[in-house]
Task: structure prediction
Amino acid sequence: MKTQSNSNPKHSILPVDGLLLLNKPAGLTSNRALQKVKRLLHASKAGHTGSLDPAATGMLPLCFGEATKVCAYLLHADKTYRVSARLGEKTDTGDADGQVIASASVPHMTELQWQSVIDRFLGETQQIPPMYSALKVDGKRLYELARKGLVVERKPRTIRIDELTLLECKGSRLVLRVKCSKGTYIRTLVEDIAEAAGTIAYTDSLHRESVGAFRAEDMPDLSKAEEWAKSAPELLRKRLLAPDIALAEMPSVEIRQDQAARFVQGQQLEVADASNGEVRVYGAKGQFLGVGELIGNGRLAPRRVFNI
Result:
């Protein structure tokens, strides 16, 4: 999601090219969090990737300036969550913001028994997106239809659960750490696990711990970002990460300095690499130029040029 103009003309626009890993607070939409930080940085262009529900907290990568070009790549990144589930009750939204619509008894299970249940969800599986989600059907957001009391058919999607660790199981509380692929709805996963255990549940709290290779220690709270913007703006800008950090898992190639101008103009180049696939492209002086694609026979085609 991107915005192009500054909504407050009183603020001067500054050149900002980088990523900020925000620890999003509960009660704020991802877009609202983006707009707040955009104003703090006086940035002209901004976007976020991997939306979090308003009730959820944790890592929200915010992209500014040229870094908005990596948003699409971050959408494919694996994510890790810590989720707390309330067993024995079900809400219409699947989380604590909804209304309780059903109750059931909670089975007495040991940690080993719970682990046996959750292990069934490891690997690739099919998941039906919840009605309270931002997916569109015939141009309408599912949550818009859900608020009208409508339920429409949703096609199951393939997701992948790489890690599913039991952190706590006590009474009606179940706490898990989940490492999963893009497109995984944790609220639905919680409901499915509870069903497999013979009960019902909803997501009581959700915290995203990581996105791709980004580290949790690199993400400030919104209150800290606001404090820096007021007292020491340079500290906030120093927390911006270079756009190519988001592409760290992508292989890289270096081109000659005389080829750099041709690359940023969109021209194909001859390189000493006959492999195939997308790569990070750097100039001879180490400057990040963008994303290219090796198309065999030693040819490199520009795919995303960064003007930093």
Remarks:
- The helical segments are 30-41, 71-74, 111-118, 142-147, 186-196, 222-231, 233-238, 257-264.
- The domain at 79-211 is CATH 3.30.2350.10 (Pseudouridine synthase).
- The longest helix spans residues 30-41.
